[in-house]
Write a structure and sequence with these properties.
- There is one protein chain.
- By secondary structure, this protein is of the alpha+beta class.
- About 55% of the residues lie in helices and about 15% in strands.
- A 5-stranded mixed beta sheet has the order 3-4-2-1-5. Strands 6-8-7 form a 3-stranded antiparallel beta sheet.
- It is globular, with a radius of gyration of 20 Å.
- The protein starts with a helix and ends with a helix.
């Protein structure tokens, strides 16, 4: 991001309460489509009408409230508010898989007082790589991998049925490939040292180990809440470590079984979160604003299908 662009976007924070974390994403940063800029900020909200908004986001939505109609310096912005605790919990555990999915894609940081991107989000990205590898064939390209990572947060999203560009994932990855690569190349090298995959000179430049033991390793790297749901569906087995600690692992009969089960869990999670967030946005933003925003999204979606 250009320094002037960064300073202009950061100027919005001067009229808002202090934040511990703020990142920016959207087509102004990455020219892959004609979306307006999205501003994504996180801070505690305490007083007045904001308290009601936060209650709606907590009880009805997924803990984050978005205002999609902000005018600032002759620009249209969309910003969201979320408690830091909710942000961190979702990043680490994918309990709602809403904010965590956003941070698996490239963003530009404006504020990061708690080292969220370097420390906490590294866990999220590592889990995203594991989930994507589980869903990919034995041979694939880097672009395939980033597309699969990007698609995780859209699996089961109700908006994809009628209010999102059908080419959204491909546009994001193609427009931001270098940024995806800078985010995930170190993790791919980490996977290579663990013999989970290797780089090849062929056109499909990545080859992964599709054995059952590697599949189990990938599943073990998924967040605890996902593994818990998979254990309910596939069963579990208890493992006794050398220190005497008992752990519970997902029973995996085949890689395909594990992949289908994880996909089912993630689709269900994304579907519920997208539905709850849609209702929350309708209640908090008001019927008129919500209808205007939805109509804009639907127009883009239909244009992508024509």
């Amino acid at each position: 991001m250009e320094t002037s662009e960064r300073e202009e976007l950061a100027s919005l924070l001067t009229v808002l309460p202090p934040v511990d974390f703020c990142c920016v994403y959207g087509s102004t940063l990455h020219p892959n489509n004609q979306d307006k800029v999205n501003h994504y900020a996180s801070w505690m909200v305490h007083l007045g009408g904001a308290r009601l908004i936060t209650q709606v986001a907590d009880k009805v939505g997924v803990g984050v409230h978005f205002n999609p109609f902000v005018s600032w310096n002759d620009r249209k912005l969309k910003y969201g508010v979320v408690r830091m605790n909710d942000l961190v919990q979702d990043i680490l555990d994918w309990n709602r898989f809403y904010l965590s999915g956003r941070l698996q894609k490239p963003v530009h940081l404006l504020v990061d007082n708690l080292d969220i991107q370097e420390d906490v989000n590294s866990v999220n990205k590592r889990a995203a790589v594991s989930a994507a590898l589980l869903l990919l064939p034995s041979k694939f390209t880097e672009e395939d991998l980033y597309a699969k990572i990007c698609s995780l947060s859209y699996m089961g999203d109700l908006r994809m049925l009628f209010a999102e560009d059908t080419n959204k994932v491909n546009k994001i990855v193609k427009g931001q490939f270098d940024l995806f690569q800078s985010m995930y190349k170190p993790l791919l090298e980490e996977c290579e040292t663990k013999n989970l995959l290797r780089f090849s000179s062929a056109e499909t430049n990545l080859v992964q180990d599709s054995s059952l033991s590697s599949s189990r390793s990938l599943v073990s790297s998924l967040p605890a809440s996902v593994r818990s749901q998979m254990r309910k569906l596939l069963g579990e087995k208890k493992i006794l470590s050398e220190t005497g600690r008992v752990s519970r692992e997902v029973c995996i009969g085949s890689r395909e079984e594990a992949a289908k089960c994880m996909e089912k869990v993630m689709k269900r999670r994304v579907m519920v979160s997208s539905a709850r967030q849609a209702v929350s946005g309708f209640l908090a933003a008001g019927a008129i604003n919500a209808t205007v925003y939805l109509s804009q999204k639907m127009r883009k979606a239909w244009n992508s299908r024509s």
